[in-house]
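Subgroup meeting minutes
Present: P.N., E.W., G.H.
Scribe: E.W.

1. P.N. recapped why we're keeping a running log of single-chain structure predictions: easier to compare across weeks, and new members can see raw inputs and outputs side by side.
2. G.H. added today's entry (148 aa).
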Amino acid sequence: MWILSFLPDWIFHAVAIAGFLAVLLGTFLKAIPIINRYALLLKVAGYFILALGIFLEGSMFTERIWQARVKEVEAKLAIAEQQSKEQNVKIVNKIVTKTKVIKTKGKDIVKYVDREVVKYDTKFAPGGDCEIPKEFIKALNDASEAPK
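Output recorded in log:
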């Protein structure tokens, strides 16, 4: 039916009207004695043309309905895209904020660990036992917590 979309609408109306006129003319041609032998042929052709015209009118009507639905969905899609863009901006802002918090917290933890390592650096013997200080355990636990 996409080929018929190139034709103007008045052609479909003309086919339906021509079919109706052919049926009407075929009915009245029975009264004229010289042409009455063509009346049946004209009437049958008129019914076929009328059926084609009604079919084309119906397809044109259906096409209009679908085009209206397409426009409606496109409008909804445009609104959804705008809302999506707004949500993307909010998400990017949250991610940037969280990244800054994580970097800041990571730098604080590195400073804390560097400061505490100096205190225990002399206690570690190359071949001896090594004790894990409570500050290291606390720093590890602080690092694994989710940022607030």
